[in-house]
Amino acid sequence: MTELQQTYNRTQQILSAFGAGDSSKRIIYQPSAISPYDRVQTLRFYGFITSLRMKVDIRSISEADIPNLEADASRLERLTAMRNMEWKSPRKQITFFLKTATCPWQPIFDVSLLNRLPYYSVNLLPYLTDNISFDTSNDCLIGAQITNAGYGLLEGEDRITLYGSVREEITTLPTDSKEIVFATPHSWEIDEDSRLILPANPNRQQVTLVNTSLTDEAYINYGGMAELGKGITLMRGGGSYEINLSNLYRGAISAISANPLTLTGIEAV
Q: Which pLDDT does position 55 carry in this prediction?
């Protein structure tokens, strides 16, 4: 029986630090892309966060008082004392967010940052899930931001370090796909008149296009006519575009540019 797909995995490290004055929202994890040239979002890995911890080193506020509880204190008294220490003591605060391609940043949870000498560590995974890992889709972003809870932002030697690990996976295209036999190299002179650079080819498996101009953009279109400022933009200085088995197109391809430039590329079958 022919194997139709394969799954590859790897480990991605999470590491991000916040210091004095940091107030911007920061992406602490985004699923990796297969390569820097990916155009299709499904070519990103999906992730399983297996570890996420935070080292808290706060020195700019007074040290938090440890609750002095009697030996026979009830569970309610203990929980109330811990809650008051976490949320009613002088504190800093960090907020965590989630975002997807269809939903903007949403706050998920806050963590109180106290002065506990010399420092302490917080396991963040239980804030995200009760399972052994937090599963993320390929369009999911996790962010964090230092927020003002009434005692200002981080100051002086305050430092927050987030660290952890993610197991990333991706499912490949069918292994029985036809392999590339050969490729034809090309070079095209493009100007303000639309030019057909590749005719339709029913055997096409890959096309790679590169803009060699250092001053002008090129515009690519599927079909026989390209228009300035529309379609797929190849940025100056090496902007590129690739057609492969993940976004296969076998029709005509045209190109245009406001000023003369050279496109290079290959077509593989």
A: 97
